Structure formats: structure tokens, C-alpha cells
Automatic annotation (TrEMBL), chain A:
Descriptive protein name: Cytochrome bc1 complex cytochrome b subunit
GO CC, any one term: plasma membrane
Alphabetized UniProt keyword annotations: Cell membrane, Electron transport, Heme, Iron, Membrane, Metal-binding, Respiratory chain, Translocase, Transmembrane, Transmembrane helix, Transport
Membrane topology classification: Multi-pass membrane protein
Entry's transmembrane regions: 49-73, 119-138, 150-170, 182-203, 215-240, 272-295, 330-359, 379-399, 411-435
From TrEMBL, chain B:
Lineage: Bacteria, Bacillati, Actinomycetota, Actinomycetes, Kitasatosporales
Protein name: Cytochrome bc1 complex Rieske iron-sulfur subunit
Function: Iron-sulfur subunit of the cytochrome bc1 complex, an essential component of the respiratory electron transport chain required for ATP synthesis. The bc1 complex catalyzes the oxidation of menaquinol and the reduction of cytochrome c in the respiratory chain. The bc1 complex operates through a Q-cycle mechanism that couples electron transfer to generation of the proton gradient that drives ATP synthesis.
Subunit annotation: The cytochrome bc1 complex is composed of a cytochrome b (QcrB), the Rieske iron-sulfur protein (QcrA) and a diheme cytochrome c (QcrC) subunit.
Subcellular location: Cell membrane
GO CC, alphabetical: plasma membrane
Residue stretches spanning the membrane: 57-78, 98-118, 162-182
Domain of life where this protein originates: Bacteria
Membrane disposition: Multi-pass membrane protein
Length: 545, 351
């Protein structure tokens, strides 16, 4: 455990074996300086800090199981006739990729389990990243100095989506092939270069003989390689910046309060890896995922109903489903707006959330480091923006599954499509307004609690017959926690005329910034937090308590 | 077990004398009162509770070992194709279930043991570390800037403009080699997307029976899929050809066909449309015989086959291309040419 060497053991020259190994390594790698800074590093505790860990561990599980799968998978599109152990597909023509996936599922002992863990872990990985990102967003953990780590995380999310997409396309089954066809159609819609990109990607016309092999190297080498680098960089920055923490007694912007890495956090985090892995293994034992044998091999002239991508691609599916089929023909060319516009909006939806930290820091003009997390209610505009974005995302998910909504809830598919078309524009605005109101309401409640105490539920009858509810004053810890947040004042443009009466030209960006700042921190955008004077006045005067 | 049995000296009162709660600050009631005093867990003050925790952790680790043994035993003994009935999952593969559950328990028990150990037996005293600004101090900054200026000066990059410009040129050009190398990823599109296997005189072959068809084989209200004569499943390139040539045949009473050209290109009410959706290329396969609507199951584009397959709902941008058909001398349905417009999704050169 401990690697500190006592002078005594040194002088006798009989240090324990572990220490001697550590000394040897330190002489070459300088591990003691590293350990000095990190071995007892403090990590704050909060349930939401575990979300990122889920992502990290599922990523590791994906790599472990993925390496195993490569030992059996043949990334080839050669057509072969099936004579394996799965009887219903006997004699069918299929690609070697599909056949080897069947073999992994039916002939390799434990192969199906590893395949399912791999797929489940991928779904959990993306879901974990989504929720982790929301945690970081709503608590303001992206603020200086963590903006770059936010971008690293965002890139991991986007790359994770494409790694997932290339991964589930590899078995070359009817469902994933339909997804590839969709992708090809989307690429074809790109003006000028679309057909060329498509021909280069597929080695000719769709589907050709190449895409499985090409997707394979993208899926197992290119994207995971980049992601591994990003994950390492992400973790290094988490260590370097030290973790954020929520406000509370004893917690300041200049300290970090929690448990040391060795032993508590190491045991908890290490144990959590096994918990995640264990749950994924058990889920894979009882819940089938992507049963390609029931879907059948890919044929470009066949399809099944209810074709859906994995969940993280669902919002792009929604975009393409609800878009009106606009096409403009001119001078012998076609501008396929009905497909191209969704293709352009797809990255914009993601970029909207990615650039937000930079917009907020521009509006606040705050150049300080922030290590204390915001409660979402105390940043109403940010929270409202985040909820609006999630609403946008989920409206598109509904659009992506419009057929399933229609069949499961007996609704008209046309009505759902029209609902999504309208909600795409309206729902985020409504969500923004409602969320902001809720946040302000919660701020008022906090203020009330600070000034008047907690509702105790005890009813008291006064001598003259009046009934009142007894309010219990909060402890100083609670008072501090509820009033610890900072409140910005809106940015002022300042006088437009200087002392000599010369008009100063105000740049449009500055006007915009002042306007946004007013929206963020103006009178209607936050409830002034209680002051000490208010508190004293109320507590010293008449007392209900 | 009960708290009366706990030795006096282990109780929190005697153990912890420093961490009494601070009284409220008179001046600023909102001031930070500092870290709250450490609260002891039962394991900190009662050695028997700690022992219990120890046994729980050990039990979990032992359970993990047993589960791993179970995993290996399942791997060796259960045949890969054995199926069992497990309520409420139904009939499932025995090996997958056994391996997954034993592996799950083996891993979960390790995790649960480690977390329980950390939560009950390791110190839960919260510690505080100081943070230091990420930014360098002004002195360090000044030193770095000086070093950089010195280095830049010594490189003479700023003074010898010729070197600088040619270097930028060389660095900007060499990646082009990499781009050029990508050229052979695929052939140029040319007019490949405009043509399919269909040509004048090619028989329409039923996809299911692999036989050519007579008009009488296609009854009103049915939906039949066809491929061009000579294209066989075992052919190399079958997938690529069928991706364009796939055809669907419907028969509608000629009086019900609204589109004039469509009627002309049909044969006795038999209409041959491309099966490939003009949106993003899914095969259209849902046909509603009462309304003559065909629906693409991928993105719900709906086409009215009685009206030239025009789009009546959904994201598709234009009608399905129609193939001109007739019958040959022997009475079999045949194509009278290729599609006169590209099939499948629209693209820039389509026009």
C-alpha cells in the first residue's frame, strides 16, 4: 500500500519487495512525484459525479469485448451460402460478415454473451455521456477553467455516436443495411460532391463490396483510437483541474472537500467498474439486443417495418422523417433540400449545446475560475436553455419513432409528423419559458426559507385564537448553502456620450451583449438573494418561531 | 449489538472534542461555518459492527469466486445449442443465460464488496485540499514569453522571409499527396446512377418464383415484386444491381388510373414502379389496395400508385419512376426500355 520508505529500512538495505520495485520505478519514471500529488488526491462526493464514471467503465468494457469480437468476426462482403447451426437461415445467401456474426452468436461458446455485452455497453456508454453532459451543463461545471474539457467530452459524444453507427452496421443485417442505405441517400443529397463522396465511400455504387471492411477499420481502429486519446486527455484534465463541488459548509472556490483517492475513492471507483460490468453482463444474459438472426441478411430490395436506428441516432432519424420533401431542379441539377437540410441541421443541433459555454462566458464577461457548482435554479436562463435543448432533442426522437408512436398509441402518423414539425419550433420556446418560471419560483422558495425558516408542519394556536404554522429557523450551514451562490448584475452599455458631448459609437456586438446580459441577469431573470439586513430585520422583529 | 454494550471510550462524545457545532455568526448569519464535525458510523465505534462489515465484504468476495467457478463449469458442461425455459423470460439459450448470470454475479460481487468496504470500514473523514490557480504567475509568464522571443529570434524565421514562405508552401502542399491517394477509393459516378439493368425486351421475372409472368398472373389489388430477366441471386454484383432494378407491380382497374402517361405506360392496368423510395432509397413494401397507396416503412413517404406514384405524404421529393411495360409475342410481360429517369434518392446531377 504505502510506498514511503522509512530511513530505518533503507539503512538495513532490506526494504520490502514492493518498496524496492517502487524505488526502481521511481529511479526511471519519477513515480514518487506523481504519487505525491495524486495518491491522496481529494475527490468530492455527489451521486451525479458517478455518471462520468459509468461512461468511462462502459468504454473500457466496449474495448475489452470488442477485441474479443474481432477474433471471430470476418469483415467481408463476400456472398456465401449459410450452412451453420441456425436452422431457419440454412441455405440463405449472406455476406461473410453476417455469417460470422451468426457464428459468434450460435457456435462460439459465450460469443453471444460478449456480443450482447458489447452492444449493451455501447448503448449505456452513449446514454451515460448524454446524462453526464447534462449534469455538467446544468450545474455550470463547464465554466472556466473547464471549457476545453467540455469540448473533449462533446467530441467523445459525437465520435461515440459514429462509432456506434459504424459498429451496428458491421453485421450487414437487413436492419443495419437499411440504415446504411439511409446514410447513402443522405450523402447523395449533398450538392456538387454528394455522388462522388458516395462512390468513394462505397467503392462504387451502393452497396458494393467494400463498406463493411471500410467501416470495420473505422470502427475498430480510427474512431476508438481518437476516442481513447480524448478519454485520457479528459481524465488528465479532471485530475489537473480537480473536481468541482457543490456549495456547502466548509466548501469554497479555493478548496476541494471529499475523500482521498487512496483508499476510499480507489475502492469505490474501482468497485464501481465491476458493478457496471456486472450489471451489463446480467442484462446481456436476460435481454437480447440486436437479434440479427431474426432480422435476416441485408438485401437492398427488402425491408422490415419499424426500422429504427439505435437510440442515439434517433434524433437525426426524426429530422429526416418530418422534413417536407423539398426538391429544386435547375439547369440540369437537383438541390435535394428535403434531405440536405436535415443533414445540415443534424450537426447544428449538437453544436448548439457545444458552443453554449462560450456564449455564456461572453455574456457574463467573467474571467475567474469557477469550482463551485451552481444549483440549476440559480442559473435560470442557462437551465431554461438546457431544458429547451433537451426538449428539441426529444421532439426529434419522437419524430424518429413516429411509426412506433402511431402503432403503439393508435395515433395518425400524419398527425404525429405534423406535431413534430410544429413542436420543432414551438416546444423549445415553451420549455424555455416554463423552465425559467419554475427556476424563479424555486429561487423565491429558497429566499423564503432563508428569511422565514422551514415549514415545520406544527400548527400553533395563539391566545387570541389565530392559528399559525411554526416556522423553524435554518441552521447556519443551511443558511450558508442557500445563499452561497453569486448573482451577476447585467452588463451596461455605459454612456453613449463622453464628457465632451461627443457621441461614442457602440458596436452592435456590445449592444447584443448588453441585451443578452439583461435577459440573463435583469430584473425578471433572477430573484435577488436575501441579504443579511433583510434577515436581521425579520428575525429580530416579530417572531413566529 | 445494542448501543449499551459499546465501551464508553468509543462513544463519539469522548472521541471527538474539537468538532462542536459553531454557533451562528452574530454579524453574518450567512457566513460559512466551516466543515461540519465528523459523524461517526456504527463501525467506527462498535468493533462488532466493523466485524460484521468485514464478514459481509468477505462473503461478497467469496460469492464472486464461486460465481467464477460457476462460469467455468457452465462453459464446459452446457452445450452451446441447449435451450431452457426460464420464467418470465421464456425459452432462452441456456449457455448464454448461465454465462451471463455467473459473470454478472462474479463482477457485481467484487464491486459490491469493494464499495461496502470503502463505505463502512475505510475512513470517512472528509478532507480538504487547496486549489491553486491554473494560470501561471506573472514571473513565469514573463519568462516563457522571453524564452519564446529568444527562440524565435535565434531561428531567424522572422528575418529570413524566403525560408519562411517556402516552408509554409511545402507544408501546405504535401498533404495533397494524401488526398490524391484517396482517389482510388472508388470509381467516378459518371452516369451509373441513371441506368439500371432494364432494357427493351427484358422479361419481368417474379422475385419469389423466379419465373417470367403473364398479365393474368397479376390480379387486381395484389402487389408483386419483380427483377429483370437474367439477374440471379448468386451473381456477383446482384446486390448492387437489385438496389436499382427492384420493381413492384400492381394492377389497378384502368378506369381508376388517373395519370394519363401512367396509363399509357401500363399494360392492361398493370403498373410497374421502381421499388426504391425516392427519398433515401428504402424499398417500398407496404401497399394499401383500397386506396392504391404505397408506403415506405422507413420514413413513411406515401405514394399514390393510381396517380403516377406522386408523393401524397412524407419526406420524399418526387414520384416513383415508372417502367414502360408490355407483353412479348409469347404473352410474357416485358420491359419496353430502361426507366427514363434515375431511380432511388435524388442527387445533384439528377436534374
Amino acid at each position: 500500500m504505502s510506498t514511503t520508505t522509512t530511513p530505518e529500512s533503507r539503512s538495513r538495505g532490506k526494504a520490502p519487495a514492493g518498496e524496492r520495485v517502487a524505488d526502481w520505478a521511481d529511479g526511471r519514471l519519477g513515480i514518487y512525484s506523481l504519487a505525491k500529488a495524486n495518491m491522496r488526491k481529494i475527490f468530492p462526493d455527489h451521486w451525479s459525479f458517478m455518471l462520468g464514471e459509468i461512461c468511462l467503465y462502459s468504454f473500457l468494457i466496449i474495448i475489452l469485448t470488442g477485441v474479443y469480437l474481432t477474433l471471430f468476426f470476418h469483415p467481408s462482403m463476400n456472398e456465401v451460402e449459410y450452412h451453420g447451426s441456425y436452422v431457419p437461415l440454412q441455405g440463405q445467401l449472406m455476406s461473410e460478415a453476417y455469417k460470422s456474426t451468426l457464428d459468434i452468436s450460435f457456435d462460439v461458446r459465450g460469443g453471444l454473451l460478449i456480443r450482447q455485452i458489447h452492444h449493451w455497453a455501447a448503448l449505456v456508454f452513449l446514454a451515460g455521456m448524454f446524462v453526464h453532459m447534462m449534469r455538467v451543463f446544468f450545474t455550470g461545471a463547464f465554466r472556466k477553467p473547464r471549457e476545453i474539457n467540455w469540448l473533449f467530452g462533446f467530441l467523445l459524444f459525437v465520435l461515440g455516436m459514429f462509432t456506434g453507427f459504424t459498429g451496428y452496421s458491421l453485421p450487414d443485417d437487413l436492419l443495419s443495411g437499411t440504415g446504411i442505405r439511409f446514410m447513402e441517400g443522405a450523402i447523395l443529397s449533398v450538392p456538387i460532391v454528394g455522388t462522388y463522396i458516395s462512390f468513394f465511400l462505397f467503392g462504387g455504387e451502393f452497396p458494393g463490396d467494400d463498406f463493411v471492411a471500410r467501416f470495420f477499420s473505422i470502427h475498430v481502429l480510427l474512431l476508438p483510437g481518437i476516442m481513447l486519446g480524448l478519454v485520457v486527455a479528459h481524465l488528465i484534465l479532471v485530475f489537473y483541474h480537480k473536481h468541482t463541488q457543490f456549495a456547502g459548509p466548509g466548501k469554497t472556490n479555493n478548496n476541494v472537500v471529499g475523500m482521498p483517492l487512496l483508499p476510499v475513492y480507489m475502492a469505490k471507483a474501482g468497485g464501481f467498474f465491476f458493478l457496471v460490468f456486472g450489471v451489463l453482463a446480467a442484462v446481456s444474459a436476460i435481454a437480447t439486443i440486436n437479434p440479427i438472426w431474426a432480422i435476416g441478411p441485408y438485401r437492398p430490395d427488402m425491408v422490415s417495418t419499424g426500422a429504427q436506428p439505435d437510440w442515439y441516432m434517433g434524433f437525426s432519424e426524426g429530422l429526416i422523417r418530418v422534413m417536407p420533401g423539398w426538391e429544386i431542379n435547375f439547369w440540369g441539377h437537383t438541390l435535394v433540400l428535403g434531405v440536405f437540410i436535415p443533414l445540415v441541421i443534424f450537426p447544428l443541433v449538437l453544436a448548439a449545446i457545444a458552443v453554449y459555454p462560450f456564449i455564456e462566458s461572453w455574456v457574463t464577461g467573467d474571467k475567474r475560475e469557477h469550482h463551485i457548482l451552481d444549483r440549476p435554479r440559480n442559473a435560470p436562463t442557462r437551465t431554461a436553455f438546457g431544458v429547451a435543448w433537451i426538449t428539441w432533442y426529444f421532439v426529434l426522437l419522437v419524430g424518429g419513432g413516429n411509426d412506433l408512436w402511431a402503432t403503439h398509441f393508435h395515433l395518425s402518423i400524419n398527425a404525429i409528423t405534423w406535431f413534430v414539425r410544429i413542436a420543432f419550433f414551438v416546444a423549445p420556446v415553451v420549455a424555455f419559458i416554463v423552465t425559467k418560471r419554475i427556476c424563479l419560483g424555486l429561487q423565491r422558495r429558497d429566499k423564503d426559507k432563508v428569511l422565514h425558516g422551514r415549514e415545520s408542519g406544527i400548527i400553533k394556536r395563539l391566545p387570541h385564537g389565530e392559528f399559525i404554522e411554526v416556522h423553524e429557523p435554518l441552521s447556519q450551514e443551511q443558511l450558508h448553502t442557500l445563499t452561497a451562490h453569486e448573482q451577476y448584475a447585467p452588463v451596461e452599455i455605459g454612456p453613449t456620450v463622453d464628457e465632451n458631448g461627443v457621441r461614442r459609437k457602440v458596436p452592435a456586438t456590445e449592444k447584443l451583449r448588453a441585451k443578452l446580459s439583461k435577459g440573463y441577469y435583469g430584473e425578471d431573470a433572477q430573484i435577488p438573494k436575501p441579504t443579511v439586513e433583510e434577515y436581521k430585520e425579520i428575525t429580530s422583529g416579530h417572531g413566529h418561531h | 449489538m445494542s448501543s449499551q454494550d459499546i465501551p464508553e471510550e468509543n462513544l463519539p462524545v469522548t472521541q471527538d472534542t474539537t468538532g462542536s457545532v459553531k454557533l451562528a455568526d452574530e454579524k453574518n448569519p450567512f457566513a460559512d461555518p466551516g466543515l461540519p464535525p465528523h459523524e461517526h458510523r456504527i463501525q467506527d465505534i462498535d468493533e462488532r459492527a466493523a466485524k460484521r462489515s468485514e464478514r459481509t465484504v468477505a462473503l461478497l468476495f467469496t460469492l464472486s469466486m464461486l460465481a467464477t467457478v460457476g462460469f467455468i463449469a457452465s462453459y464446459v458442461t452446457i452445450p452451446v445449442d441447449k435451450s431452457v425455459y426460464i420464467f418470465p423470460l421464456g425459452h432462452i439459450g441456456a449457455l448464454n443465460f448461465a454465462l451471463g448470470m455467473t459473470l454478472g454475479v462474479a463482477l457485481f460481487a467484487i464491486g459490491a464488496g469493494a464499495v461496502h468496504w470503502a463505505r463502512t470500514l475505510m475512513s470517512d473523514q472528509e478532507l480538504a485540499d487547496e486549489r491553486h490557480p491554473i494560470e501561471a504567475s506573472p514571473e513565469v509568464r514573463a519568462k516563457v514569453m522571453d524564452d519564446f522571443r529568444q527562440g524565435a529570434k535565434e531561428s531567424v524565421l522572422g528575418r529570413r522571409k524566403l525560408i519562411r514562405n517556402t516552408m509554409f508552401g511545402a507544408l501546405a502542399l504535401f498533404p495533397l499527396s494524401g488526398v490524391v491517394l484517396l482517389r482510388d477509393l472508388g470509381p467516378l459516378p459518371g452516369t451509373k446512377l441513371r441506368h439500371t439493368l432494364w432494357s427493351k425486351g427484358k422479361l419481368l421475372v417474379n422475385m419469389n418464383t423466379n419465373e417470367p409472368m403473364r398479365p393474368s398472373d397479376i390480379i387486381v389489388g395484389s402487389l408483386t415484386f419483380a427483377k429483370p430477366e437474367g439477374l440471379e441471386e448468386h451473381d456477383h454484383g446482384f446486390q448492387t444491381e437489385i438496389a436499382k432494378a427492384a420493381l413492384m407491380l400492381v394492377r389497378i382497374q384502368p378506369d381508376n388510373i388517373k395519370d394519363k402517361q401512367s396509363l399509357e405506360w401500363s399494360h392492361e392496368g398493370i403498373l410497374a414502379y421502381s421499388k426504391i423510395c425516392t427519398h433515401v432509397g428504402c424499398p417500398i413494401s407496404l401497399y394499401e389496395q383500397q386506396t392504391h397507396h404505397a408506403l415506405c416503412p422507413c420514413h413513411q413517404s406515401t405514394f399514390d400508385l393510381a396517380d403516377g406514384a406522386r408523393v401524397i405524404f412524407g419526406p420524399a421529393g418526387h414520384a416513383l419512376p415508372q417502367l414502360r411495360i408490355g407483353v412479348n409475342d409469347e404473352g410474357y410481360l416485358e420491359a419496353l426500355g430502361d426507366f427514363d429517369e434515375p431511380v432511388g434518392p435524388a442527387f445533384w446531377e439528377r436534374g
